[in-house]
Amino acid sequence: MRNLLFLIFLLSGQVLLAQQEVDLFIENTTYDLVQDRLSCIEQDIPLHFNDKVYGFVTYFAIRNRAYTKMVAARASYYFPIFEQYLKKYNLPQELKYLAIVESGLNPQIISRAGAGGLWQFMPYTGSMHKLHQDFYIDERFDPYKSTDAACQYLSSLYQMFGDWELTLAAYNSGPGNVRKAIRRSGYKKSFWEIYNYLPRETRSYVPQFVAVTYTMHYAQDYNLLPEEPAYPIAHDTLLVTGYANLKTLAQALQICYSDLQQLNPNIKQFGIKTQQPYPVKLPADVIEKARQHRDSLLQLAAQQGKKELEYLARNTIGSTYGREKHSYKVKSGDVLGSIAQRYHVRVSDIKKWNRLRGTTIRAGQYLNIWTYPNTKITPVYKPVTQKLPDLDYTGKKTHTVQPGDTLWDISRKYKNLDIEKIKALNKLKSNKLTPGQILIIG
């Protein structure tokens, strides 16, 4: 009992100290003080201050301290990489904080929209900037290559707009949306003047950047600096051609596979398969051994897990491995099931390829379909237009169900016919139809 009371006393004391600490941070985050501090750290990128920015400052500095501490720990790992490339492209060093807004400095994060990596490149934009993506490798996750690509993209956006706030907005929503907002605002020239015409997410994007910049600059004042910062593992590269099992390679070199994963976030699987020599990062203290015994190590690493990965590559939902891309324009009456049958793929694949949450599609919509080479695509059935419906031997009017037909489609083809009448005439208990089925329509 005495020990329990002592524990409660200690815990209550810790809560009291934590609350006192938060109260102190609140006192050091007054509106006027934050505004003054922002003006002191402003460099190339404007750090405009208002209520929206202040709201995000209190969020990062006080209300979600655990998240900000986690990001601060990762910053010591990634900021030196960012600073190196920002200097290479003569860009403002403050842009390193943009990656926090984008990804929270998680190199393998993927958004719902499909954007990936520290700088959240969409697949198409990543390909434009020569970031290789396949089943084994996704260079959007490579801190070095993706940062180089992000710097190129930011440079091109700044050349378009000549304004850093508009550049940030364009990085988030695309230059087309920013130009559209400029037109709708009457050709205003600043972010805050076109604010109300931008997509909702983009409106909070620049204020978040300003708030993150402030919080990271004054992290020590808010006791947000990590006790154990993360630092990169010293490394060098070994060129790999063909297939190599990285778990086997790590075991042979007597290093932790987790270290290999940390050094190579761009390698998505436990193995790599490439036709051209591809650099795999290894800890610096084993690189000499790896190069000295390169052939025997890679021969050993090529013996395990290859069939397993190839099976996964072919059968994972949404995989494009070894497939060819087609673009299909949805027609009236199409459903995902009929399209999947036509191309000999799964509905789940089509949904994954096109980031569809449900099964709803609309006429005129384009879908990406990936098929294996030499797949025989079933031709679209084109029914012959008939002026009059068929008659069966009893003299009743009939309709033969075609692929893609629905009760609603059929009811529209004939006068004085609706779905309920079709179901009643044919004693149908559901709306399900089968191609070739003959329906009485009158």
Task: Encode the helix/strand succession as letters.
Answer: HHHHHHHHHHHEHHEHHHEHHEEEHHE
Under CATH, the topology of the largest domain is which? Lysozyme
Task: Tally the helices.
Answer: 20
End-to-end Cα distance: 86 Å
Q: Architecture of the largest domain, according to CATH?
A: Orthogonal Bundle
Please state how the strands of the largest beta sheet are arranged side by side: 5-6-7
Record field, number of beta strands: 7
Overall residue-averaged pLDDT value: 88
Question: How much helix is in the residues?
Answer: 40-55%
Which structural class best describes the helix and strand composition? Answer: mainly alpha
- Radius of gyration based on Cα positions: 30 Å
What characteristic shape results from the CA principal axes?
flat
Q: Give the C-level CATH assignment of the largest domain.
A: Mainly Alpha
Total tally of structural domains: 4
Q: Sheet with the most strands? A: 3 strands, antiparallel
Which parts are unreliable, with pLDDT below 50 for 5 consecutive residues or more?
1-17
**Quaternary organisation:** single chain
Strand content: 5-15%
Structure description:
With about 450 residues, this protein is mainly alpha-helical. The chain has four domains: about 25-130 and about 140-215, Lysozyme; about 235-315, no CATH class; about 325-370, LysM domain (Membrane-bound Lytic Murein Transglycosylase D, Chain A, Roll); about 390-440, Membrane-bound Lytic Murein Transglycosylase D, Chain A, CATH 3.10.350.10. It contains 20 helices and seven strands. Strands 5-6-7 form a three-stranded antiparallel sheet. Strands 1-2 form a two-stranded antiparallel ribbon. A hairpin with a 5-residue loop joins strand 5 (about 390) and strand 6 (about 395-400). Helix 3 (about 50-65) packs across helix 11 and helix 12 packs across helix 15 (about 295-300). The longest helix is centred in the first third of the chain and has 26 residues, at about 1-25.
